[in-house]
Amino acid sequence: MREYTKIFKALSDEGRLRILNLLVRKPLCVCEITEILQLATSTVSKHLSILREAGFIIDKKDGKWVNYYLNDAADEQVRVLIETLIGWLNRNQTALNDIAKLATIDRNHICGVKHS
Question: Three-state secondary structure along 25-79?
Answer without folding.
Answer: CCCECHHHHHHHHCCCHHHHHHHHHHHHHCCCEEEEEECCEEEEEECCCCCHHHH
